[in-house]
UniProtKB/TrEMBL annotation:
The lineage of its organism: Bacteria, Pseudomonadati, Pseudomonadota, Alphaproteobacteria, Sphingomonadales. This is Uncharacterized iron-regulated membrane protein. The chain crosses the membrane at residues 12-38, 153-173, 202-221, 345-365. It holds the Pfam family PepSY_TM. InterPro entries: PepSY-ass_TM (IPR005625). It comes from the Bacteria. Keywords: Membrane, Transmembrane, Transmembrane helix.
Amino acid sequence: MMARPRVFLRKVHLWLGLSLGLIFAVLGLTGSALVFYVEIDKALHPKIEQVSAARALDWNSAAWDRALATGRAHWKDQRGRWSFEATEEAGAIPARFYPASDHGDHHHADREMVWFSADGSRVLRAEPWGGYLMSWLYQLHMDLLAGDPGRQVVGWSGYAVLVLLMTGLAVWWPRASWGKALAFRRGAAPLRRLRDLHKLSGLWSFILLLILSGTGALLALPEVRTSLLAAAVARPDAMPRPVSARASGEQISIARALSAAHHALPDGRLSFVDVPEPGSEPFRVRLQVPGDPHRRFPGSYVFIDQHSGAVLAVHDVRRGNASTTIIAWIRVLHDGTIGGLSTRILALIVGLVPTVLFVTGILHWGRRTRARATSLATRSRS
């Protein structure tokens, strides 16, 4: 009786591996590359980094507004939105330009990635998102280059991979000797060595693959994430949606918006400042407050009226409920930044494992299938 569940689980593991293995491998390989995608992109464009400043930009730097003026002069679409990143490094100013026709969700929007000189006076580099190597890999990882349908495939595949991993563990779980179950037999037949390599690769990376797959699924399908958290913990705190008091008028400077945001959250570290198109949308300043684990993409925001400079709303993750706190940790668990350089390197290595599992699984299945076919042919002849 005990053998039947194991046989069933083995079949589930096999067919999930055959159907999802290639996607799992692609997501793992692209994920490994993206662990250091900023550093790799800088290495591929060294001329950008040769232009440096005496110090990194801060809350009061005039270069923010100079870069905005340069960008608006270069791109004549005055109703486009801009997002500037604070890197805390001397050198080029990274930015994103979203034309006015873009979809409201930045994941769907066509956007131009722009790098300004350190003083904001020149455009050093401008490329469409997805038009250069690292952004292409990012899109491949997020949605398999297929937009919304691809993101759905990636998200639900992540949940299916959790089943794949759990069934693999259940099929492996030893019924007798743990020593034999954990051994790699160097002198065994090729079929057995493939099985051992597949087994041990999955075992040593099991927990980390669970974390990467689970967090990846949660990131790919935010609506499902919200529903799961609402059912298990609490509904995450809603992001404020304030509007400026007037729909028209002179837009304040970035420097003024940053000053207001800094006053609202004085212990926050500047991460991004989003400049709206002329109208009723507010400035949105993204900050990392103490306790927020993600340095580059933190979860706290200050919303500033684009005409008066008044603070309209503050979203401080420290004041959020348990689900908001969980969401703050999902991304650092997925991209490996939770422990700094050491965990990023570990995430890079673990991202290679799905390819090992896919290749060894396919080879083992193919050899086993051929061995069975040969055995049946021998029996039929005899």
